[in-house]
Automatic annotation (TrEMBL):
Domain of life of the native organism: Bacteria
InterPro entries for the chain: DNA-bd_dom_put_sf, MerR-type_HTH_dom
SMART domains, per database record: HTH_MERR (SM00422)
Source species of the chain: Commensalibacter intestini
Protein name: HTH merR-type domain-containing protein
PROSITE patterns: HTH_MERR_2
GO MF entries: DNA binding
GO biological process: regulation of DNA-templated transcription
Amino acid sequence: MSKNNLNYSYMDFLSKVIVGIHEVSTITNIPVRKLRYWEEKGIIQAVDPTAKSRQFNLANIKKIILVQELLDDGYSLDGAARKVEDRIAKLDSLMSLIEI
DNA sequence: GTTCTCACA
DNA sequence: TGTGAGAA
């Protein structure tokens, strides 16, 4: 097992803290309508797609904030999404290697 | 309150 | 790429 307790808790935290779409919109300053559009495009995933209203976890909120910054810098939506996926994958990979 | 869908820029 | 609006 390469993950230590601290890193497991961090990933656990990111995936288990769930927030309603309206609160996500308020926090990120991104319209609900746009969040639903991104979900439709597969950039972000609702916790339970079959639920009556959408909820997102903190990992998704990180994505949302990063994607929006890249869009502001002129990236296409797909380009921004790829870059964010890449960064998160690399960071998570590094986190799993760190020994405290 | 939220979602869907269609139209539109 | 993102929004408006009506219906549900």
